[in-house]
Each structure stands twice: as C-alpha cells, then as structure tokens.
Amino acid sequence: DIQMTQSPPSLSASVGDRVTITCRASQSISRYLNWYQQKPGKAPKLLIYAASSLQSGVPSRFSGRGSGTDFTLTISSLQPEDFATYYCQQGYNNVLTFGGGTKVEIK
Amino acid sequence: QVQLQESGPGLVKPSETLSLTCTVSGGSISSHFWNWIRQPPGKGLEWIGYIYYSGSTRYNPSLGSRLTISVDTSRNQFSLQLTSVTAADTAVYYCARDISTDDYYFDLWGRGTLVTVSS
Q1: pLDDT by residue (tens digit) across B4-44?
Q2: Residues in chain A whose Cβ is within 8 Å of chain B
Q3: Closest C-alpha to A78, from A31, A21, A19
Q4: In this complex, which of A50, A94, A100 lies closest to B103 when CB atoms are compared?
C-alpha cells in the first residue's frame, strides 16, 4: 500500500493567517492526490482533486499544489469556518489510502 | 440533487456479520463507482472498497475475505457485509460516490452511521 504522511498533525492559527499543510506519499503518485475537510460529527467534504483542481463550490482561498510524492494544501486567509481536520487521499493505485489528518485549531 | 443515506444496525456482536445499506436518492446508481469508507472513533479514514453498478468490485486487502459489497440497481442501493467482526471494526461507516474517470476521489458522502461491535 502507498503510505500517506501528513504534517503537521495539528496546528494553531488565527483568522486571516495563511496556512499550509503538507502530504507526502511513500512512492510517486503523479497528480492523483485529493484533499478533504472534515468538521466534528460530519462527513468529509472534497476540497481539491487531482492535486490542484478546486471542487465546485469550494472557496478560492483553498489551493493545492504538487506532483510525484510531495503535495501541499494552502488556505490563503483562514476563516472561522475553516477550523477543521484536513485529510489527503491518494487515488493512484488499487488500494486507496488517506493521510492521518491535520487538525487546524484556533489560536 | 443526489443524496446518500446509510442504514443498518448500530450494534453488532463480536464474531457476527455487520450489514449496511446505502440508498442513493435523486439520481441513478447506474453509473460511477460507489464506495464504503470507515472511521474509528477519534481516528482517521480507511477506504473499505467500491462497487461499480455493473457489479465489479475492488476491496481493501486489509479486510481479507471478510468483505462483500453488492449492488441492487432496481432499488438504487448498494450494500456492505463484513463477517466475523471484532471491536476493531467499531467505526462510523460512510458510503460515498466516486465520479472520477482516471482518478479515485469521493465527491459525495452520506452522513455516516456509527456501528459498535460489542456483546
């Protein structure tokens, strides 16, 4: 299986901050990398697919970059509704795997 | 607007079979890939497997031969059966849709249902 490692596991930030989350794959996955946001008690929500494509309805302050093994999710100006846990997920091979998550908390 | 809804028992005894159904409303199940994903309390996400409307499946090998996913196109439903469950199978179980063509990602999710394995 392809292992997905996210960093940091958690971070504290303030409204208006620029936040970057990293996801690293254990082998090259081209651009088959997707990002989700999950709030407590809710299902995950797709934010970014194919490394950098913004899902319909997702605010433009979210952006994704990367290819191969290293990827980032950036929130350009953190809003109150963005405090949540973020997961990356690879769609490259037969066994789909997620990163361990990054919890974004209020400073 | 397409919606997904999981249903099934919230409590299953150890060694028994966990059975869940996902009902697709507002659209047809006869396209795309339909997935099960789970999340143990306080932990991360684990992909369980998917089924195409034609019946072809792909499973997470970590679940071995315990897993069966099936589809009923006449009812617009797909189902999960997991045999010989243990406490490690306690989780929120989500059904999710994959509309991608050359990638695998989940654009639509059910609300999830908590299944507890306990005697």
Answers
A1: 999 999 999 999 999 999 999 999 998 899 999 999 999 99
A2: 32, 34, 36, 42-46, 49-50, 55, 87, 89, 91, 94-101
A3: A19
A4: A50
Q: What is the CA radius of gyration of chain A?
A: 13
Both structure tokens of B117:
């394995």
Q: Cα(B71)–Cα(B32) distance, rounded to whole angstroms?
A: 12
Alpha-carbon distance of A66 to A97, in angstroms, equals 17
The pair of structure tokens assigned to A42 is 């809710």
Q: Name A16's bridge partners.
A: none
**Mean of the per-residue pLDDT values for chain A?**
97
Q: What is the DSSP letter of B60?
A: -
Residue matched to tokens 């507002």: B26
Residues of A in contact with B94 (CB under 8 A): 43-44
**How many whole angstroms separate alpha carbon A79 and alpha carbon B73?**
42
- Using one digit for the tens of pLDDT, what is the confidence trace for A28-60? 999 999 999 999 999 999 999 999 999 999 999
- Measured in angstroms, the CA of A96 and the nearest CA of chain B are apart by 6
Separation CA B5–CA B21 (nearest Å):
8
Rounded distance between C-alpha atoms, residue B28 and residue B51, angstroms: 14
